[in-house]
Amino acid sequence: MNDMRLTERKVDTKEMKIQARKVQVYYGDTHAIKDVDVDILDKTVTAFIGPSGCGKSTFLRTLNRMNDTIDICKVKGEILLDGEDIYDRRVDPVQLRAKVGMVFQKPNPFPKSIYDNVAYGPRIHGLAKNKADLDEIVERALRGAAIWNEVKDRLQAPGTGLSGGQQQRLCIARAVATSPEVLLMDEPCSALDPIATGQVEELIDELRTQFSVVIVTHSMQQAARVSQRTAFFHLGNLVEYGETGDIFTNPKDPRTEAYITGRIG
Ligand SMILES: Nc1ncnc2c1ncn2[C@@H]1O[C@H](COP(=O)(O)OP(=O)(O)OP(=O)(O)O)[C@@H](O)[C@H]1O
After folding, report:
1. Global pTM?
2. What is the Cα–Cα distance from 108 to 146, expressed in whole angstroms?
3. Who has the most CB within 10 Å: 164, 216, 221, 240?
C-alpha cells in the first residue's frame, strides 16, 4: 500500500509543468492578481475563465514574463517551470519565451513570407544546422499547426495575405517551431469565425499530446470543449481550480456557480 502511494506521488510530480506560488501582480496601485497558487500539468489543456477584468490575461502573461514589457507592472511570488524559477535574474526572457510560447487574441503574423514567419524563431535560437534542416523544421511546424496543405505551394507569399483563421494557425506554427514545452493562448479564437474556431480547437486537442496548453477564454462552451482543467478567476483571485467537468457540473464556490450559470460576468 505504501509502495503504491509512492508510485502515485512520483507520477504526479513528473506531470507537473508549472507551479505558481503566492503570485501577486500590480499595475502601479492596481492589485490585479492576488496571492495565486496553481499547478499546471504537462500534456493537459488548462482553461482560465472568469469575468472581464478578473486578471486572466495578466496571470497568463506572468507564465512567460510577457508582463516584463509593461513598465508599471510588478510581479511577486514564484513561478517554477520544471522546478526552476523563471523570474531568476539568470533566466533570459527571450529563451524562456521559446520554451513557453504564446498565441494572441488577434492573429499577428510578421510582415514576412509564410516561410520566414515560421523560420524566425528557429533562426534566432540557432535550432537549424543548415537550410535543409530549417526547411524540415518549418514543414513540421506547419503540419503540426494543421495548415501545411493550405500553404505548401506558396511558402514565399506574405503571411498577412492569409485568411484570419489561417493567420492564427500560422501564428501557432510560429510558436510550435521552437519546440515549446508550454503554449499560452490568449483568447485565440475570438477573432475567428465558427469554422476557423473549430479548426483551432481541434488543433489544441492535438497539441496537448506534445506539451502543456494554457488558454484564456471568454467562452465557457470552449473551455468545456477543449480543456481538461479549468481555473476560475474573480477580482484577481483564483477562486476555484480543478477538473473541467467538476468545475462546470459541481462548482464548490458560489462565485463559480454564479459565473457558469450566467449570474455574474
Ligand atoms: N497594461 C495595463 N496597465 C494597467 N492596468 C492593467 C493593464 N493590463 C491590465 N490591467 C488591469 O488589470 C486588471 C486585470 O486585467 P486583465 O486584462 O488581466 O483581465 P482579464 O480577465 O484578462 O480581462 P478580459 O477578459 O476583459 O480580457 C484590470 O483591472 C485591468 O484594468
Report:
1. 0.91
2. 18
3. 216
Q: Which of 247, 88, 250, 107 is nearest to 168 (CA)?
A: 107
Expressed in angstroms and rounded, the spacing between residue 59 Cα and the centre of ligand 1 is 10
pLDDT digits (tens, 9 = 90+) for 196-224: 899 899 999 999 999 999 999 999 999 99
Give me the interface pTM, i.e. the ipTM: 0.98
Residue nearest to atom 4 of ligand 1 (CA): 27
Residue 2 CA, ligand 1 centroid: distance in Å: 46
Helix (H) / strand (E) element for 159: namely none
- Residues touching ligand 1 (Cβ under 6 Å) are 27, 30, 32, 50, 52-58, 70
Q: Is 40 exposed, middle or buried (0-12, 13-18, 19+ CB in 10 A)?
A: buried
Q: How many angstroms does the Cα of residue 83 sit away from the middle of ligand 1?
A: 28
Q: CA 216 to CA 188: how far, in whole Å?
A: 8
